[in-house]
Amino acid sequence: FSVSTNNHEKLFKAFTIGETSESVVARNGLKVTPDYTIHNHPKMDILIIPGGYGAEQIEINNDVVLRWIKDQELKVDFLASVCTGAFLLAETGILDYKKATTHWMDLERLENEYPNINVIRNVKFVDEGRILTSGGISAVINMSFYIIENLFGIEGVKETAKIMEYDLP
Question: What is the mean pLDDT of each run of 10 residues along the chain (169 residues)?
Fold first, then answer.
């Protein structure tokens, strides 16, 4: 989203949010320093919940973060998850009685642990209106283009793909 443009105008103000302002250590030691915290962030139109080990093993037990996600559900236009970020949406009940997907290695676990979710296999992402879930890392590109197209039309997608040097299907 940070490179998305239409007629050379930025379409989004992308930023990161953490429970605190401390850096978060991601896979292989990559450090991400949040721009804002869950207590001081600006209004959002789109909230994307990332996945990975931290989401599915640590944050899934963090009641503060889970309550914040649930609270954002009706405040944003789109609430989306990447990969195992779907487990955080599932834990809050947001995905109950909806279709959803996640990384292919975690589909069975999502289905077993959250029987009220209609888990969809062999798709890049699932659209449930304002709630979207995607598979693994590359699947979020498809989901992101889908959101851009819904908000700004195909020209926004084409210009973003060109900047990314991404070949659209």
Answer: 76 92 88 95 96 80 95 96 96 98 97 98 97 93 94 92 90
pTM of the model: 0.92
Tokens standing for 94?
């947001």
Q: 10 and 4 in contact (C-beta within 8 Å)?
A: yes
Which domain range does residue 49 map to?
5-17+24-164
For the residues of 11-39, what is the DSSP string, one character each?
------EESSSS-EE-GGG-EE--SEETT
Q: Any idea what the CATH number is for the domain that residue 118 is in?
A: 3.40.50.880
State residue 132 phi and psi, 5-degree precision. -130, 145
Q: How far is 93 from 79, CA to CA, in rounded Å?
A: 13
